[in-house]
Design a protein that fits this description.
This protein is mostly helical and 239 residues long. The chain has 9 helices and no strands.
Length: 239
């Protein structure tokens, strides 16, 4: 029992989350580098489009600024968490277990949404590689923005306005962030056409991912999101 508690506590920490998501970050950035700019621009929406629009207002236009900023965020997080390094041991077997745990959560998410019509392309050839790259990137960037950043931001605003309990602020912020997460899939020139049913499905998915983030941290949530997207791509391409 103590080993399970230790695993659950350690793997929720930012240090484990960053180490765990680093391979996906590298795969995504290499995929971006190897894919033509025109095709990637067409396929972008959601958090990716939102964050790039924000960066463009500061004159930062291009495919690689997001990766550079995310890398800087990793370095800053490590520096901020430095005082906790001596309290947390890095176990390689924990990282392996996290992979299987992420697979478990992604399968639950898949079965939850398996009966819903999803507006996905039927990828093949080069487009399949692009879809895989974007699926991996979605797990990292969407979870980082809509769960880590947005929940913290909304919770901070609620704490300034209302004298509520911290847990109430966090959970309400997660629900609001889930709504924004769903809405941004319908924003942009190449986004999906709005459908209330699809909005509610993604809203519920955002709540599930937000709950998972609260209990298991960023790393496992990001992996679960990416693996889920990869399962969908596999299902589409094998039909």
């Amino acid at each position: 029992m103590n080993l399970i508690i230790k695993y659950l506590e350690y793997t929720r920490t930012p240090i484990y989350s960053l180490l765990f998501t680093l391979p996906f970050f590298l795969i995504y950035e290499v995929g971006i580098f190897l894919t033509s700019n025109e095709n990637l621009n067409i396929m972008r929406n959601g958090a990716d489009a939102l964050m790039r629009q924000i960066l463009s207002t500061f004159g930062l236009v291009g495919l690689y600024w997001m990766g550079a900023i995310f890398f800087i965020a990793i370095i800053l997080t490590f520096l901020v968490q430095r005082k906790y390094w001596y309290d947390i041991e890095i176990f390689g077997n924990y990282l392996i277990i996290m992979v299987f745990e992420s697979l478990f959560w992604s399968l639950l998410l898949y079965f939850f949404m398996s009966n819903v019509y999803l507006f996905l392309m039927n990828p093949n050839g080069e487009v399949l590689i692009q879809q895989i790259t974007l699926a991996i990137g979605a797990g990292i960037y969407e979870e980082f923005f809509f769960r880590v950043v947005l929940i913290l931001l909304i919770s901070s605003i609620l704490a300034l306005v209302f004298n509520w309990n911290k847990k109430i602020n966090n959970w309400l912020s997660m629900i609001i962030a889930a709504g924004i997460f769903s809405a941004f899939h319908f924003i942009g020139d190449y986004a999906d056409f709005f459908s209330f049913k699809i909005f509610m499905v993604r809203f519920l998915a955002g709540i599930i991912l937000g709950t998972l983030y609260f209990f298991r941290g960023f790393g496992i949530t990001a992996w679960s999101h990416s693996i889920y997207d990869l399962i969908i791509i596999t299902k589409i391409t094998t039909q």
